[in-house]
Amino acid sequence: MELPRSEKEIIRLIARSDEHVFEQLFRSWYARLTLFAFKFLSDRQEAESIVQMVFIKYWEKRKELKIESLNSYLMTAVRNSCLNELKRRPHFYSVEEQFNLADETDDDGFDEELMEKVQAAIDEMPPQRQKIFKMSRFEGVKYKEIASRLGISPKTVEAQMGKALKTLREMFNPRSTKKSLGQGN
């Protein structure tokens, strides 16, 4: 059986505890929402867990929720859950911790060649992204403070940091994103 055609009908049936319709909704949205969560978290298992929790909460609160759009509700719930998860993570990482570089250092605990590669990657970033990255990771400045100092929005800081971290992750583990997404599919 396919999902009813109208979102209002799906919402109404789920509110009345129709497990079959809920299961069909879950199956039709799961992959899309997991990919969406993965873009925030860069971890497939965490993304899957977030999506599963969103559906569990929806089922638990199905009679109380006043949902106008399933798309808006599900995407917003997943996005907010991802952002909450990111807030729970430690806010400051050194470059070595962020990219697990400490394991690759020599006996003195410092690998000059590796740090030169990191610095070269940072130097290739656009000037504003470099500035944001250095303030965050080298100086430990919080996103709101960076935004204030540079006269930009915190969302811009967040977006630029995401791009900087993605660049560095791909540089040090070029298959990490593809590998994580491809597992189990």
Blueprint (SSEs and pairs):
Layout: H1 7-15, H2 19-41, H3 44-60, H4 70-88, H5 95-98, H6 112-123, H7 127-138, H8 143-150, H9 154-172, H10 176-182
Helix pairs in contact: 2-3, 2-4, 3-4, 7-9, 8-9
What this model shows, in words?
The protein is mostly helical. It has 2 domains: 82 residues, Orthogonal Bundle (Rna Polymerase Sigma Factor, Chain: A); 88 residues, Winged helix-like DNA-binding domain superfamily/Winged helix DNA-binding domain (Arc Repressor Mutant, subunit A, Orthogonal Bundle), CATH 1.10.10. 70% of the residues lie in helices and 0% in strands. The chain has 10 helices and no strands. The radius of gyration is 21 Å and the shape is elongated. The protein starts with 6 loop residues before the first helix and ends with a helix. The C terminus is likely disordered.
